[in-house]
Write a structure and sequence with these properties.
The protein folds into two domains: 54 residues, no CATH class; 67 residues, Orthogonal Bundle (Multidrug-efflux Transporter Regulator, Chain: A, Domain 2), CATH 1.10.1660. 50% of the residues lie in helices and 24% in strands. β1 and β2 form a beta hairpin. It starts with a strand and ends with a helix.
C-alpha cells in the first residue's frame, strides 16, 4: 500500500507556500532521501519568517483522465468503469476522483489479465508453433 501524499503548508492567514511530496517520492526507500532535506529547509525558512507550519497527509487522488493515461485506455472507458462500479471513486463536488491505491489495484488487475492472455502468444514466439 502506498503512503498518502504529504502536504506541508506554510500559513500566515492566507496560503503563502506549499511543499507537496508525492507517494512515489516518499516511498523511494533511500536512507537519506533528498525530500527530507527539502522539508527541513522549508520548515526552517518558515520558522525564520515567523510563519506557522502545518504538516498534513491526504490520500493521493487522480482524475479519470489521469487514470486513463496510466491504464492506457480512454477517459470515457474509465468513466464507464466508474459508473459500473468496476473502479471505485469518490465525488469531489460533481467530479470523480480515484485514489492512488484504487488505481494501483486496477492497474495490477489489468496487467494480470494481459499477462494471462498473452502467455500462449509469448510461448509461440519463443518456442515456435507446435
Amino acid at each position: 500500500m502506498m503512503p498518502p501524499q504529504l502536504c506541508v503548508d506554510v500559513y500566515d492567514g492566507t496560503m503563502t507556500e506549499a511543499l507537496i511530496l508525492e507517494p512515489e517520492v516518499i516511498s523511494a526507500g533511500k536512507t537519506d532521501p533528498p525530500w527530507l532535506a527539502a522539508l527541513v529547509d522549508f520548515v526552517r525558512r518558515a520558522g525564520q519568517a515567523g510563519e506557522i507550519v502545518t504538516v498534513t497527509s491526504r490520500p493521493k487522488t487522480m482524475t479519470p483522465a489521469e487514470v486513463a493515461r496510466g491504464l492506457m485506455m480512454s477517459r470515457s472507458t474509465v468513466s464507464r468503469k466508474i459508473a459500473a462500479g468496476e473502479i471505485r471513486s469518490v465525488k469531489v463536488g460533481n467530479r470523480h476522483r480515484v485514489t492512488y491505491q484504487e488505481y494501483r489495484r486496477v492497474w495490477e488487475q489489468t496487467m494480470a489479465i494481459v499477462a494471462r492472455e498473452s502467455v500462449a502468444d509469448i510461448e509461440a514466439e519463443l518456442f515456435g508453433d507446435d
